[in-house]
Structures are given as C-alpha cells and as structure tokens.
C-alpha cells in the first residue's frame, strides 16, 4: 500500500519501536548509563520511565517490562491502524493474537540482526585495529544473547562459533513460533 497515511503511520510507529527496542537491549546488556548512546536512548524513550512505575523492571533490573509492554502496545496500535487505513476488519482476538505474534517474531529477528552486526563489527575491529563507541555498543548488545550459547558450544580458540549457534537457535525458535501461530490462526 502506498497511501501517504499508511506510510507515515508505519514510519512513525517503526521509529518508536526501534527506539524502544534499543532502550530495552541497552538496559538488558547493562550498558553504562553515562554512555552517550544510552543517554540519547533514555531521552528518546522517557515514556518507559513513566510506565516503569506500573510495570517494574525484573531480572535484577535488567529486563524493562515497561519497554516490553510499550513495544507490544505499539504493535497492536500499528495493526489496528493498518486495518483501519486499509478498511479491513479485525476482531479483538485477531488483533491481540496477530499483534503479539508479530511482536515476538520481529523481536527475535532484531536479536539476530544484533548478532550479525556484532560479527561484522568484530571483523572491522580486527582489520582496522580501532574501536568506535558505536561498534563497542553493538558488541555489548549482542553479548547477553550470545553468552548462553558460549557455554554450550566448544571453545575452538580464535574461532568463536557461538554467534552461529545463537543465530541458528533464534531462527529455529522464530520458525517454531510462526508454525504454531499459523496453526492457531487457522483454527480461529
């Protein structure tokens, strides 16, 4: 759909989703609050602090439930706005289920992109022998995702296969959720 309203609504919601995702991941990766990118993310997503009073952080303060709830709300709003603009009807159950399924699969896809970015950033660091704050941030964001796989994958010295295992694991999880979601949608 090339309607200007459709494009504008989706662009605004996607920008907000990316900002919330970055805020969530920076908090999850325990990025230093004085880091310039963390300060910028906190300023852009100040609404998370307001919602944190209702949905407190869990996991020792690492997991922002407020950011998760806001991302989920934005997916539901996006789906409802798209349906309204395209003049389609969605039941409340369809809106909830499709929006939630989309949010989960997109979240898993973004985690994979972070891992790929981290691998590419490590190559840049190795070839250029320099570290930019953005590269450091990408590598910090991927660490909590890849770390559990490091315990499973054997250490091969200079060759780290844990990002590949993490990518494969996240892709399998995403496909599993999509298959279950499609089967439930067909049953509705």
Automatic annotation (TrEMBL):
Transmembrane region(s): 6-29, 50-77, 89-108
InterPro entries cross-referenced by the UniProt entry: CCB3/YggT
Keyword check for Transmembrane: yes
Keyword tags: Membrane, Transmembrane, Transmembrane helix
GO cellular component: membrane
Pfam families reported for this sequence: CCB3_YggT (PF02325)
Protein name according to UniProt: YGGT family
Native species: Moraxella caviae
Phylogenetic lineage: Bacteria, Pseudomonadati, Pseudomonadota, Gammaproteobacteria, Moraxellales
